[in-house]
Amino acid sequence: MATRMKLKLKTVFVLYFMVSLLGLVYALMQLGGQHCDCREHMSVITQLREELRRLQEQLKKSGATKLPPKLPAKPSLPTIYVITPTYARLVQKAELTRLSQTFLHVPNLHWIVVEDSPHKTPLVSDLLFKSGLTYTHLHMLTAKDRKLQEGDPSWLKPRGVEQRNEALRWLREDRRVQPGGDRQQGVVYFADDDNTYSVQIFEEMRSTQRVSVWPVGLVGGMKFESPVVEGGKVVRFHTGWRPSRPFPMDMAGFSVSLKLVLANPEACFDGEAPMGFLESSFLQGLVTMDELEPKADNCSKVLVWHTRTEKPKMKREEALQAQGLGSDPAVEV
Amino acid sequence: MATRMKLKLKTVFVLYFMVSLLGLVYALMQLGGQHCDCREHMSVITQLREELRRLQEQLKKSGATKLPPKLPAKPSLPTIYVITPTYARLVQKAELTRLSQTFLHVPNLHWIVVEDSPHKTPLVSDLLFKSGLTYTHLHMLTAKDRKLQEGDPSWLKPRGVEQRNEALRWLREDRRVQPGGDRQQGVVYFADDDNTYSVQIFEEMRSTQRVSVWPVGLVGGMKFESPVVEGGKVVRFHTGWRPSRPFPMDMAGFSVSLKLVLANPEACFDGEAPMGFLESSFLQGLVTMDELEPKADNCSKVLVWHTRTEKPKMKREEALQAQGLGSDPAVEV
């Protein structure tokens, strides 16, 4: 009985020992061949995910940067002088507000705002002062016979001509220093207050040597107008109207180096130019088609849109004003 | 001798059995608590590394590394959830671009963009991805019988109703946690893509407890519409039409606390509401006039404008397309 039990126990023990030993060996082989440490994997996965998130954030910013007002000036970057003619109307403050908020994302931007007015208005003065931008505030009243009258179609006379010329005059006077000096580094751009600008377009134009060009969306009855680039050169223009014009481009579609503007003190906009020739009147003394510098990925990307804001209807306002119940004129709109 | 051996073997066997049993129990607990699947982890890690490499490539190409760092999130500030319904049209990209550039100035803003479309479009997806903003991209097609048809006057049927409701549904699902939790701190604002927003309005609305209100410029045939404040309370409304409506305010003129939105899961916009009653259909279940919180210096400042962008004319485009000379459809406008 004792011997049988001894034998039985011994057999069971040996079998059990061997089976568990096999298990141990198998486990060790597993560990050696493919070591699986959950915590380590999880930590690698977490690290990778954090890195991914960081990169995604960075990448998102590639088109636009999130910055608090008043960017620090970067001495190495050429200044972009943005010339904006503006005139009093119901949507003026709205337009200038959203424009200024776009410009706030652009380092080294100097905004030259020229009012079509006999004096600087408090609305524009105040807006510029609070904008956080570097700016110059000018005014130049358009001569009455050159001005669009109420009811005139907007193409009848070009708007903003004398204001743009006044800004050019100011620039030439302000930057008149020893030629080749640092104060001549810069780019000049004409940005009307109703258009839409991606902040990217400013980085495109910053490297302008003579005249940079790019497509403009929603202009001239077209989805876009654009220089056509072949082999890195502008060879013609995609436009819906008179492609034979010297420079069949919208005002929003080019920038000029400050040096070129200063070196050609007579170059300006001709208010008497036939319709559609205003841009050409300024550019044809400065550059040839062959010299144009195509930007925005060889003119394949639309980064500026010729948007127009509807004139708001004021029928109810007028009706209420007739009853003495109009909107408080002390509230600036 | 046999007895001693029997005892010894028995003891060793029992001890060995117990120790290995403990080991087995431990192994089983490990398996139950944290199932470690090496192959799954390795595949996740490989995927993440590939995604990282892809993003790094993209980042290099975009040159984004040169841009300044993103404004850090401020945990102390309530998030502003801006809900923007949008639909495909010629000016869509321009409008969303300038809107996104305004929002980029606002810390802790979460943009919820809802397309009126059967699917998310590449144009909006891409714009959001590159925007630098925190966002959620949704879509909800408006039922055909509720949709404005080509040529309908814009007041005939309200636009964006089902898209705003979809955003509310998403918010309620996403923020559904224990009541009073941190994830319920926030403000909800409905910002259409054609309006103009001063960045200041977002700081005004950030302190919303229930419903904040302020003037809206250029709306309803008026210079502005506004709550009228006396003794710090809204007592009536300055509006050109039916001041007797429960809340005669434009969509751009109020914000609602996230808590209030979550506490009233049935509150939404009623697309069948009579013209001019859409805002009221949402607000009347949430708040009384007496509870409204006037912002923007007791509703004396206009910081939002109901601007509208003209529909661009495409006559030349159509004429050129007929000749096979239309604008390259591969260029996104």
UniProtKB/TrEMBL annotation, chains A, B:
Chief localization: membrane
Question: Which enzyme class, named as a word?
Answer: transferase
GO CC, alphabetical: Golgi membrane
Listed InterPro entries: Glyco_trans_43, Nucleotide-diphossugar_trans
Q: Which cofactor does it need?
A: Mn(2+)
The biological pathway it contributes to is: Protein modification; protein glycosylation
Molecular function in Gene Ontology: galactosylgalactosylxylosylprotein 3-beta-glucuronosyltransferase activity; metal ion binding
What are the BP-aspect GO terms?
Answer: carbohydrate metabolic process; cartilage development; chondroitin sulfate proteoglycan biosynthetic process; extracellular matrix organization; heparan sulfate proteoglycan biosynthetic process
**Annotated localization:** Endomembrane system; Golgi apparatus membrane
Active site positions, chain numbering: E279 (proton donor/acceptor)
Q: Kindly state which reaction or reactions the protein catalyses.
A: 3-O-(beta-D-galactosyl-(1->3)-beta-D-galactosyl-(1->4)-beta-D-xylosyl)-L-seryl-[protein] + UDP-alpha-D-glucuronate = 3-O-(beta-D-GlcA-(1->3)-beta-D-Gal-(1->3)-beta-D-Gal-(1->4)-beta-D-Xyl)-L-seryl-[protein] + UDP + H(+)
Name of this chain's protein: Galactosylgalactosylxylosylprotein 3-beta-glucuronosyltransferase
- Which organism is this protein's natural source? Betta splendens (Siamese fighting fish)
